[in-house]
Amino acid sequence: IVLSLTGWLGWQNGLGRADQTFYDHIITSDAREPHKDILIIAIDERSLTLLGPHPWHRNLHAELLRRISEDKPRAVGLNLLLSNPDLQYPNHDIELAEAIRENGRVVLPMRMDGGYSGDSLIQILPLPIFYEAARAIGNIHLISDFDGIVRSVFLRDQIGTETWERFAVKMLQVGGDTNFLNDLPGLRFLHTHIDTKANTWFSDHRMQIPFAGPPGKIPRISYIDVLHNQVPQNTFRNKYVLVGITAAGMGGDSYPTPVSTDGQAMSGIEITANNPDAFNTVISI
């Protein structure tokens, strides 16, 4: 789906320089513990060494989901763009879709791809077999300020007649934390007119991310340990579990943040994990 950028670029500029400096100072000097109910299952260097290069066969993801499901997590964010079929092993797609459906609490991502066509971006959605099996779909698109640093997220996007909420919002919704949904936090951008026929993309509810700390602060478990059943029972019970790539240079996104140290970027999955952590922080105030 090709969408116009009109109405979006105006909100991409981010904080002013003075506000950036103030925010960066506050976020780096106000260390706190991450929310205890958020956990990352990391597609890390060790898992890649033992399982081989990513992407892996999707039956591995199905097995991972089955192991997570045994503990009855609150929600599982499978941060993998399942937008193309496995032509060599189509049965693996079926197996993964069944595991997603059986879990009943899986959130899958959509995003706006960086591939431009004139003044447009491309909307990337899961394949129908996965889309229909998932409990919810959430937007993982990230924006940077002028200096290239990720400081904030939009919690809601409207694309034509469709509304997409942030991946973390959908995870909290699936997990039953819904008190904030009718009044999302973040700076509002009121749009007096939206041309739904033009599929114009509007973003709203911009919120600065209260990062818990530098990369690695959110608790994580190696994918290979979960797959090989080497984690204690009930590790994932009542947790928000996010599965995604943390290994550098292996197909996962990574970004500089205000809390990055020694030039170390933060993986997209950890930035995403800081989003529900942020909501729990906002909600508890």
**Radius of gyration over C-alpha positions, nearest whole angstrom:** 18 Å
Largest sheet: 8 strands, mixed
Shape estimate: globular
Q: What sequence of helices (H) and strands (E) makes up the elements? A: EHEHHEHEEHEEEHEEHEEEH
Number of H/I helices: 8
Low-confidence stretches: 1-14, 115-119, 281-285
Percent strand equals: 15-25%
Summarize model confidence as the mean pLDDT: 82
Count of distinct strands: 13
What structural category characterises the helix and strand content?
A: alpha/beta
> How many angstroms separate the termini?
39 Å
Specify the helix fraction band. Answer: 25-40%
Tag the structure with descriptive keywords.
285 residues; alpha/beta; 8-stranded mixed beta sheet; 3-stranded antiparallel beta sheet; 8 helices; disordered C terminus
Question: What report would you give on this structure?
Answer:
This protein is α/β, with parallel strands linked by helices and 285 residues long. 28% of the residues lie in helices and 22% in strands. It has eight helices and 13 strands. Strands 1, 2, 3, 4, 5, 6, 10 and 11 form an eight-stranded mixed beta sheet that branches. The chain has a three-stranded antiparallel beta sheet with strand order 8-7-9. The chain has a two-stranded antiparallel sheet with strand order 12-13. α3 runs parallel beside α4 (90-103) and α6 (167-174) packs across α8 (268-284). 37% of the residues are buried.
